[in-house]
Each structure stands twice: as C-alpha cells, then as structure tokens.
Give the backbone structure.
Amino acid sequence: MNILVIDAQGGGIGRQLVTKLMERIPEADIVAAGTNSMATNAMIKAGAKRAATGENAIRYCASQAQIITGPIGILVANAMLGEISPIIAESVGSSTAPKVLVPTAHCNTIIAGTKALPVKECIEDAVDRIVSLYGGEEN
C-alpha cells in the first residue's frame, strides 16, 4: 500500500510520521513529498522509501496515493507561509485516498471539536489510524 506523507517548511511533522509509520508498518511503501528540499530530506532521513519535491510531484503523488497524511495545512491554500499552493491543496483535497491529518494551529485553521493536544500525541493518533486503514492490525 502506498502511503504519501506530505510536509513543508522543515519537514518536522512529516519526519515524525515517517519514523512512526516505518516502526509500525515496515513493509509499507512510504512516499515522502515535500514542498521544498529541506522537508523532503527530513523525511528521507526518517526512512521514506521514495521521495520527491515540489508542486507537480505532490500533485502526481496525491493522485497515486492510497493513504495521504501530513499536517492539516496541506488542505489549505497558502498555508505554511505560502508553501501550500492552491494547486497542492486542490490535489490533496481531490484525491480519493483517505486523508489522516495532524491538526496544527500554524495555518490559521481551527477544527471545532478537537482539543489542543501536543503534536506528539496527534502524530501517535494519526499513525494508529493509518495502521487501522492499512490492514487493521498492528504488526
């Protein structure tokens, strides 16, 4: 199964997602897509099996993904200091893949009904949900 991890800026959330996913689902085909080379490199160092950088790469990978994960800002045009272009946001939003997103306050988007948890806890929950989508049981 193809799991696409998208991130921007320094790639910190993407790096943590890749690390946890590799621990829990080592056989998964984890693809990292960064808006910039710094984000992509952070996810490569965490163990992503394949990686690409930039708007077109993210658009293409989103159309091929079976699960998409990353910070909530990947759905918001101009989020992450403008690194999420309208094309990236539309590509992620239009993908038929389930999206498991990490809520952050950095994109001026507040999701009602969620609690302000530490990012580490949000990432753990995201990985639990991806493991469930991937095959139901933890390895």
Q: What stands out?
A: The radius of gyration is 13 Å. The helical segments are 12-24, 37-45, 55-64, 86-94, 119-135.
